[in-house]
Specification:
This protein is an alpha+beta fold. The chain has five helices and five strands; from the N terminus they run βαααβββαβα.
């Protein structure tokens, strides 16, 4: 059975497990593993209520991870939940891990006064299973372009 839970301040080892899982599943160690944040930074990140780290675990081992944010809005006194990254080990896909993590993100977002939770899905063939899951759980689908702009 897969269970999803939000990481709390002080759970730095699980924060590191989340990043290791992202590095493995996305095959991007340069982004998730090669320059790990200090324990102090990780704990500070976990202590910010607008940052969301969720682990899916089976037999007390991480099998999925979700990193997201609660975005306070300016146009109304409300927020939006944003799923930034979501990954599940290939060995545990289609067993409810992603759905459980999204359900936890939805709960956290509701408690924060969010009116929606959004997620960006890439349009590559390997992302079609994720797109299918998001379609199943969503009330609308918006096609948009994403641009990376150098700071």
């Amino acid at each position: 059975m897969v269970a999803a839970r939000r990481l709390a301040p002080g759970e730095v080892a699980d924060f590191r497990a989340m990043n290791a899982l992202f590095a493995d599943v996305f095959e991007e160690p340069e982004n998730y593993a090669e320059k790990p944040p200090t324990d102090e930074y990780a704990n500070e990140w976990l202590s910010n209520r607008d940052n969301v780290a969720i682990l899916a675990e089976a037999d007390r081992k991480p099998v999925g991870a979700l990193a997201g944010y609660i975005l306070p809005k300016f146009e109304q006194a409300r927020s939006e939940g944003f799923i930034f990254d979501l990954a599940v080990l290939e060995s545990h896909r289609r067993q409810g891990a992603a759905t459980a993590m999204i359900a936890e993100m939805r709960r956290i977002s509701r408690e924060a006064g969010a009116w929606t939770v959004f997620v960006q899905a890439d349009i590559f063939p390997e992302d079609e299973p994720a797109q299918a899951l998001y379609r199943k759980l969503s009330h609308s689908e918006i096609t948009a372009l994403h641009f990376d702009i150098a700071p």
